[in-house]
Amino acid sequence: MTIPVYLGLLPLPLFRRLSTSKRNLLISFSIGILLFLFVDVTGEAVELSKQTAYSSFLFAVGLVIGVGVPFAISSRKQRVSGESSTLGVNSADKSLTAYIISGAIGLHNLGEGLALGAAYAGGQLALTTILVVGFALHNGTEGMAIAGPISDIPIRAKEPLLMGLLAGFPTIVGSIVGSMFYSDLAGALFFSTAAGALLYVIIELTKRAYSPKSTFAGIVIGILLMYITDLLLSI
After folding, report:
1. Which residues contact 3 (CB under 8 A, 6 or more apart)?
2. 64 Cβ neighbours under 8 A, 6+ residues apart
3. Percentage of the residues of the chain whose pLDDT score is greater than 90
4. Burial of 232 by CB count in 10 Å (0-12 exposed, 13-18 middle, 19+ buried)?
């Protein structure tokens, strides 16, 4: 599942050639994708939390961790970079946002991987095939969401590779673990933490949107594209 994420990151060199207005549309497109994922993982976390003891507490803990960890990392990085140039800090912030997006998507995919592994272990081969195709399309779109924040800053070649690995590889880990055993408790915690991290980056990206029309259009396109790919998971 890592390869589809890399396919979503593949157009990154082309994104760098976009005008400022089109790049804003791309960032807004990323926001739309992340909004869809936020609603999706929040719903999953709530449903799984109901199957466990202390459901409200578990959901709250995951959400606080998801928001708190990237906030703490970002705040510390800003303090450390306080003496750097404005451009340098801005680039560092955007790169950090992309990594946080990758981590949040990775947590989401870890939970989805658990479901995929559980379906395979249960002998539901047809369902497994549908899930694989749906996750592949999902992950490719998620790769584009990662590319949005870093489309206008210089980055080293290895960084997109690390981001793609961080976002996609947990699906494989989750599939392996899920084929051996499945835990509603673990799934609820992963999903609620992912929801918190997604909420953080959605707010961060929204701060950078400056054109109401292109922002609205990008968000709608991102949500619709994720909805279309999600249909394969609902068959």
Report:
1. 168
2. 196
3. 4
4. middle
Q: What is the pTM of this model?
A: 0.75
CB 19 within 8 Å of CB 206: no
The alpha carbon dihedral of 34, 146, 137, 183 has a sign of: negative
Nearest Cα to Cα of residue 163 among 154, 174, 155: 155
Summarize the chain as % helix, strand, coil (round to 5).
85, 0, 15
Q: 158-217, pLDDT tens digit by residue?
A: 888 899 888 888 878 888 887 777 677 777 888 888 889 889 888 888 877 777 778 888
User: Is residue 48 within 8 Å of residue 183, measured between CB atoms?
Assistant: no
3-state secondary structure of 97: helix
Listed by start position, the domains of the chain span: 2-231
